[in-house]
Amino acid sequence: MEMLRELIATLIFIVGVTLVVSLIGAFDWGDLIAAIGCFMAAYFIWPSKRHGYREQDNRFLDMLEIIIELPIDILVWIVRFVIRIFRSNDGGINIDL
Question: Does the pLDDT at position 79 exceed 80?
Answer without folding.
Answer: yes
